[in-house]
Input
Amino acid sequence: MTTSMFTLAVGTIAMLAGFLGALTGLGGGVVIVPVLSLALGVDIKYAIGASLVSVIATSSGAAAAYVKEGFSNIRIGMLLEIATTFGAVIGAYIAAYISTHVIAVIFGVVLIQAALQSLKRGPSEGGQPIKSDSLARRLRLDGTYPVDGNEQGYGVQNVPTGFSLMLGAGALSGLLGIGSGAVKVMAMDRAMKIPFKVSTTTSNFMIGVTAAASAGVYLSRGYIDPRVAMPVMLGVLAGAFLGTKVLVRARVRTLRLIFGSVILLLAVEMIVNGILGRV
Amino acid sequence: MDDKRLQSFIGNLLRAGVLLAAAIVFAGAVLYLFQHHADKVAYENFHAESPSLSTLAGIVNSAFHLDSAGLMQFGLLLLIATPVARVVLAAVGFYLERDYLYVTVSLIVLGILLFSMLNAT
Output
């Protein structure tokens, strides 16, 4: 394959991934690694490096809008970033010492989790905001967010549990070059009882910082090849931008089903190829 | 400075960083495709990038010499730096709000980020 064909192919796939990722809220990075390594035969290390870079691009690009609208909570994000960045550095170091076959299998398992989450009905906005527990109060994590034009207050609980889950989310991000937004949202939404909208936007806000923590390690190890990362970054960014412009509410459920099924297929492929030693 | 202004400032910084990085990567890509469009690709086997693409000094140097891969890598480096700048700005913002607890929190995050980058490159 020539470089122009390769760039075009990767750019198109990345754009589609970014588009679907933005529409479904799953992030596009998660399909980049399996598609590059399975369909185009790119070494998984280059694929992971390129994916990590695209994760930073979409996180920073989208966070700009959410931060301005007042959904994401900077204090919660910053506090939990201690855990995610620490985990990411550990994950990136571990990545060098375990075989790519094992990484492929772990990747597949994480993909299955992401797919199942998207195939289920989207989380409801239900539940009354709760009061902060004493630790969260001392850490001043309370916040407000816009609901139908009014500022709605909310509290935070179980900070230590959320913090530990974030260590795991960071380690996965550093190991696999993904944003691991699903784990971050789960930690905030389920464990810390933060409203879903605040959880997702704060998670998005944190993803870029988490990824930057392992990017340094990746860069020095030579995982980030600009010739692979360029079409991935530009494609995902363009796709995500289009995705936020063309928000078609009614079709999102169908799209989630399709995208979730694709991810499930990729997950199985990843695991099979990892076990057979082909990735 | 209150939280709202700090947030909107951070939002703008992030967007500007991403756009600038994307523009530089795009410029490098045009140059790269112009020079190498007919080359064969070979990414099946991993071999670490040369220092010109994997160290800070190397990347800056090859971008300065308008090497196409170096230029793209410089744009990617800038992209990686965007979240780091965001943490610095948050630390400054919390300091102006006299929220010293969160100045400390931001500095810890910054410390981990810098440790990762300096230790690596």
Notes: The two ends of chain B are 35 Å apart (CA to CA). Residues 3-36 of chain B form the longest helix (34 residues).
